[in-house]
Design goal:
Helices cover about 60% and strands about 0% of the residues. With about 70 residues, it is an all-alpha fold. α1 packs across α3 (about 35-50) and α2 (about 25-30) packs across α3.
């Protein structure tokens, strides 16, 4: 990850505060064309800089469609 990418992650992440989407790393990754895992690492660097606790990597998404969920 380059310094410029980290600056871009920080700028986008700060606009999503105080209650970011739990999948914000995926949203930012799509916006700046970077792998979500790298964005997640960058977010934790930003949080460390802001003196906030680190985040746990989110569990994988539910593997059912909304229609399947409603059928249950």
């Amino acid at each position: 990850m380059t310094k410029e990418q980290l600056i871009e992650i920080e700028k986008i992440y700060k606009t999503a505060l105080p209650l970011p989407n739990p999948d914000i790393h995926e949203v930012i990754g799509e916006q700046i064309n970077l792998a979500p895992s790298k964005v997640f690492f960058g977010i934790n660097l930003v949080r460390e800089k802001m003196k906030l606790p680190k985040l746990e990597y989110p569990k994988r998404k539910l593997a059912v469609t909304p229609e399947q969920l409603m059928a249950i």
